[in-house]
Amino acid sequence: MPTRDTGEHAQKSRTDADVDQVEETAAATSDLAERKEALDADIDAILEDIDEALETNAEEFVRGFVQKGGQ
């Protein structure tokens, strides 16, 4: 007489796969957070450089955009 499969084995495999997927998602989220922090730091450094350049050369910077005569 054939035995009836209760599906416990298949259910356990799905649970293990779900746990693996959650772990992979958590790792990917962590990697994205680290990349975002690094990019934010790079952007902040660039903006700081621009601020410093404008503080020291603001008048010269503005003169470069002032229209002269028939321009």
TrEMBL record:
The modification Deamidated glutamine is found at residue 71. Keywords: Isopeptide bond, Ubl conjugation pathway. It comes from the Bacteria. Residues 1-17 have a biased composition (Basic and acidic residues). There is a cross-link at residue 71 (Isoglutamyl lysine isopeptide (Gln-Lys) (interchain with K-? in acceptor proteins)). Strongly interacts with the proteasome-associated ATPase ARC through a hydrophobic interface; the interacting region of Pup lies in its C-terminal half. There is one Pup binding site per ARC hexamer ring. The gene is pup. It holds the Pfam family Pup. HAMAP family: Pup. Pathway: Protein degradation; proteasomal Pup-dependent pathway. The lineage of its organism: Bacteria, Bacillati, Actinomycetota, Actinomycetes, Sporichthyales. Protein modifier that is covalently attached to lysine residues of substrate proteins, thereby targeting them for proteasomal degradation. The tagging system is termed pupylation. Is modified by deamidation of its C-terminal glutamine to glutamate by the deamidase Dop, a prerequisite to the subsequent pupylation process. Residues 1-33 are annotated as: Disordered. Residues 28-65 are annotated as: ARC ATPase binding. This is Prokaryotic ubiquitin-like protein Pup. Belongs to the prokaryotic ubiquitin-like protein family. The N-terminal unstructured half of Pup provides a signal required to initiate unfolding and degradation by the proteasome but is not needed for pupylation, while the C-terminal helical half of Pup interacts with ARC to target proteins to the proteasome. It comes from Longivirga aurantiaca.
